[in-house]
Amino acid sequence: MRKKVTLLVFSALCSLIVLSSVAIGGEDFLSVSEYWKRPVPLQRNSNFFYPEECGKCHKSQYGDWKDSLHSKAVGPGLLGQLTGTDLKSIPNDPQFAQSCYFCHAPMEEQAEMIENKSGVRGLPPQALSGGQESEKDNYIKNPNFDNKLKLSGVSCAVCHLREGKIYGPPLRKGKGQGARGKGSGEKSQISNLKSQIKDAHDGFIEKDFFEKAEFCAACHQLDEGYELNGKVLTNTYREWKKSIYSKNNITCQNCHMPDRQHLFRGIHDPEMVKRGITINAVREGSNARLVITNTGVGHFFPTYVTPVVVIKGVMLDKNDKVIARSMKEAFIGRKVNLDLSKEIFDTRIPPEKSFEFDYTVSKSYNSGKLVFEVWVYPDEFYNRFYRDLLKGKNGGFDGKEIEKAFKITEKSGYRLFREIL
């Protein structure tokens, strides 16, 4: 039962969907939907599979990506739950693995198993499921599986490689190898640069949808994913679409890929969070208030069920020691229980809205110092989830990988704000 619930939870958080993003309208976006057909079809002996190869020329992009969460999309948390059987390289549940790979490793070469569309019987189900008939017989071993590519997660090839050709955004004027001339001279330089780029990549195709929010919606909007309390778990694109940022054409890339840097920073990065919200703390006698306003995040803060933001108010004694009984807390986020059956609260802050935390100082220490702190725990749900797995006795998970994931999530929290009043 524990394993069944766990598969439901992780599949829901991964995707467990078909290509839901096609439901979002717009002619340009239909092109994006076709581009993001999953799994991304075989690339047929491309020279641009591995990010290290791309990094030989695109050093800054590779360096940024290497430090990003996209490069860690296939990490211990995922690997620990996609454990193989005694056949080692075969996931215990290919259908479950496919739902996760939909975003975490979308290329066909990244999947150990693929759907058996030939009608020819693949591996016998008893080999995959301990003798029990199951859906696993609908899958066969992938002859094109590349474990190195799988472990690279959401790498260069995932976003830029289709049909053996490199795709990317249009070349910017004034950027590149000296393309800074004017008039016909500038056009000539840009034309030459484009020719060089095409030669270097064995063909290069420009698409303006790389700079549109819809490009990111392929993984950050899961309309047909799991719903709880009438809301899907991944709704970031639609949150943005309803905001002033969409109306002003401030896209995901403007904030998460500034100047086309491949940083993809989000709630794990304190400086990124500080740029997105404004915190004001005031005190008048025994009454104090801390207000957090979403002044720069183009979607809800935070957008997913995985993080939680904790506001703390506490008094200090005359020796500047915390008075334990004075502690008061409030929470910002969308907290759900581990089996996803209940939404505990949803206090996320939409764009241009605020969250207010009031603190009334007790008369017994009215003259003392009040401390407001804001803590961010980006992986709060995952941390609870992995802790629960480690307490269980089910052998269907790789305990070593889950332990690694637990330690990573245990350390990801940070203090964002502190002020003494």
Question: In summary, what is this structure?
Answer:
By secondary structure, the protein is α+β, with helices and mostly antiparallel strands.
Describe this structure as you would to a colleague.
α1 (2-14) packs parallel to α6. The chain is built from 17 helices and 15 strands. With 421 residues, the protein is of the alpha+beta class. The chain folds into 2 domains: 2-170 and 207-211, no CATH class; 270-420. It is globular, with a radius of gyration of 24 Å.
Relative helix content: 25-40%
Major beta sheet summary: 5 strands, antiparallel
Oligomer description: single chain
Which of globular, elongated, flat, extended, rod-shaped describes the shape? globular
Q: Which structural category fits the helices and strands?
A: alpha+beta
Low-pLDDT runs? 15-27, 124-133, 176-181
Number of strands: 15
Sum up the structure in keywords.
about 425 residues; 5-stranded antiparallel sheet; 17 helices
Write the layout of secondary structure elements.
Elements: H1 2-14, H2 27-35, H3 51-55, H4 59-66, H5 76-79, H6 94-104, E1 113-115, H7 125-129, E2 139-141, H8 147-151, H9 156-160, E3 161-162, E4 165-168, H10 183-200, E5 204-206, H11 213-220, E6 227-228, E7 231-232, H12 236-241, H13 244-247, H14 252-256, H15 270-276, E8 277-284, E9 287-294, E10 308-316, E11 328-336, E12 343-346, E13 354-360, E14 369-377, H16 380-391, H17 399-410, E15 414-420
Parallel strand pairs: 4-5
Antiparallel strand pairs: 1-2, 3-4, 6-7, 8-9, 9-13, 10-11, 10-14, 11-12, 14-15
Helix pairs in contact: 1-6, 16-17
